[in-house]
Amino acid sequence: MASRVLTRPPALRSPAFRSIGRSVLLTLPMALWALLMFTPSFRQPGRNLHIGALLVILFMTALFFLMMRTGKTYRWRRYFFVALGLLFPVGFIASLVAVRGTMSIPIERMVSGDTPFCYMVIPMLILPAAVTRTIIFPGSILPTASNPHSIAIMIGLWLALTLVVGKAWCSYVCFFGGIEEGFAALPKRMKIRKLDPRLRLVPWAILLFVVVLSAALFEPVYCMWLCPFKTVTEYPAVHSVTTAIQMGIFITLFAGLVVVLPYLTKKRTQCAFFCPFGAFQSLFNKINLFEIRFDREKCVDCTLCQTSCPTMALSAESIREGKTLLNCMKCGACVDSCKKSAAVWHLKGTKVALKPERARLLFLYGAWAMATMFGGSILANSISTIIGFLPLR
Amino acid sequence: MLGLATGPICLASCGPVVLPWMLVQPQRVRSHVRQLSIFLGARLAGYLAFAAVIWLAGIALARSGTARSWIMGGVQVLLAVGLLIYAAAWPHARCGFVRRRKNDLVQIDAASTATPKPRPTGAIALGFLTGINLCPPFLVAGVRAAQLPTLAAALMFFAVFFVGTAVWFMPFLSLGVVRRTPSFLTVARMAAVLLACWYGFTGGSLLIEKAIYG
Fold first, then answer.
1. Within-domain flag for A133
2. Which of A233, A261, A288 marks a domain boundary?
3. Predicted local distance difference test score (pLDDT) of residue B140
4. Which of A52, A173, B41, B203 has its CA 20 to 30 A from that of A348?
């Protein structure tokens, strides 16, 4: 019975891929997981936080149900991801302003280790830590009362989640990618169609650049000079020409890579052509169990998958070989767009296209659990912040 | 002992230049040994030239912030130019940095075996420039050399200091066994351009700052 459902022809996949009852049954574990994740929020005082948590439970459960019901992944994941990208800065900026009164961080606060740890810095830590046993980030290694997002906790969390889903981190957890995905979703058609495939290599060059230079300068070079998201999170206080230049770079990169280019190309340009952490994360695709493969018997080389891929993780050669490139984020856009059901989810070690829906389910349980745990808490916090600003009694 | 002890800092200081440059070399350990030897030889020449100047000029030069800034700024701008030329010249074998061949428009997309054999010019230029790049351990050594009684002693001091730091460069030879693909070479060249921009920015801003404020 199960295998019959799993191998339905594409015409039946949309809009109702599964029955409501079956979809509810498959969604139940995720609903329970979401409830479990947000139980501590209901124990805390504060009506706004309760509302935020409740909305997130409903939101995440509803999206997962729709994924089960329609068989589409990318379409529903995108709602969560864009919400995460747009709401993360709201909660983050509000907490910064509440604690410090400003988004900028003065140098003395930075030196005292009062900076929340960001996973972007992880590749830059490796060389200095290996050679000199120095952590080149001005944060605390263990959590403190003022800074619960310590280095040890964030690295542990990142490693655990990355081992489960590989580079899917970039499309289910990373709170930066959602903003550009939102801008990429706005236009109906691409304004710029031709992109040089060598652009895919730029993140690797930036990774090499920031890793080597961070070891030379003993500072996280990406955070100091290149992070576009400093514009909407936390930036060094502008008090000199150097810091003004830094701010100029942050704003330019944000405007170009996160707003304008995604709008023109319908691609996640920052993630695909700039982010060094994404390049580093790609390496974990090698050891991860889940991947997207192409059933060559069904594929008609229509290149719909290639066009729909938001990170240019497909090339004509890779499709001919039935694989994606190393930088695939497992967002599911190619699978959703394939009219012949040739693009399939795949569990390594099994035969391609044998039971793709089972592979998808296994992957989605891991990825969505991670998204609920990590992104869901960010969403709940941001929603409660927004409710706090509303003139409600 | 000073060279050995401060080697990681020297490595970190010169690594941004050496790494992308070594990555675009052909995939042969012998070639890497040759290129690294030339690089280190040129670096030694830079060390000795600096030792001679510092001994002749006296300790005041080593302690002079203004002179240091001018030298550092100038060297960093030159390093930027060197890296840019190297990154731009590599696939086309036009400049003196790579050996010319008969059909010398060697495309980066060609197989890795088709990468042109490098000339020593690049290694000499980059080695000499990193040799006179004033990193902190280098300045410590400079102050010590300026206090020595004879020029020969200062040169000997810097030569031994060089040997201590050179040991730390040996791991770069392992890059000779890493497989070169067209993508790999493109990444190395892009990184060289980015590093050139960085050196150009830091060196240029240092020079501008000194020109304005003295």
1. yes
2. A288
3. 72
4. A173
Please tell me whether residues A311 and A191 are part of one structural domain: no
Nearest-CB residue to B12 (from A204, A208, A216): A216
Q: What is the pLDDT of residues B84-130, one digit of tens each?
A: 887 877 654 444 444 444 444 444 444 444 455 667 777 888 888 88
Higher pLDDT, B145 or B156: B156
Write a three-state SS string for chain B.
CHHHHHHHHHHHHHHHHHHHHHHCCCCCHHHHHHHHHHHHHHHHHHHHHHHHHHHHHCHHHHHCHHHHHHHHHHHHHHHHHHHHHHHHHCCCCCCCCECCCCCCCCCCCCCHHHCCCECHHHHHHHHHHHHCCCCHHHHHHHHHHHCCCCHHHHHHHHHHHHHHHHHHHHHHHHHHHCCCCHHHHHHHHHHHHHHHHHHHHHHHHHHHHHHHHC
CB < 8 Å to A205, chain B: 187-188, 190-191, 193-194
Separation CA A380–CA A284 (nearest Å)? 29
Can you give the residue range of the structural domain that contains B61?
2-213
Could you give the residue ranges of the DSSP H alpha helices within chain A? 2-6, 20-43, 47-70, 74-100, 107-111, 122-132, 151-165, 169-172, 177-185, 202-217, 221, 241-253, 261-265, 269-273, 276-282, 304-308, 316-320, 333-337, 356-370, 376-389
pLDDT tier at B31 (50, 70, 90 boundaries)?
confident
Q: Which chain A positions have a beta carbon within 8 Å of B193's beta carbon?
A: 205
User: Which CATH number is A316's domain given?
Assistant: 3.30.70.20
Q: How many domains does chain A have?
A: 3
Distance from the A371 Cα atom to the nearest Cα atom in chain B, whole angstroms? 32
Q: What is the ipTM of this complex?
A: 0.85
What are the beta bridge partners of residue A346? A291
Nearest to A216 among B15, B20, B188 (CB): B15
Please indicate, yes or no, whether residues A55 and A180 belong to a single structural domain of this protein.
no
A266: left (phi over 0), alpha (psi -120 to 50) or beta: left
Is A245 found in the same domain as A154? yes
Same domain, A126 and A248: yes
Lookup: tokens for A340? 């012949």
- Please count the structural domains in chain B: 1
Residue A3 included in any domain: no
Nearest residue of B to residue A218 by CA position?
A: B12
Do A232 and A182 belong to one domain? Answer: yes
Mean pLDDT of chain A: 88
Cα torsion through B45, B50, B56, B61, rounded to 10? 180
In a domain, residue A186? The reply is yes
Do A231 and A151 have their domain in common?
yes
Q: Quick one: A112 and A235 in the same domain?
A: yes
Q: Does residue A120 sit in the same domain as residue A142? A: yes
- Residue A3 pLDDT exceeds 60: no
Q: Is residue A365 part of a domain?
A: yes
Please state the φ and ψ torsions of residue B104, each to the nearest 5 degrees: -90, 10
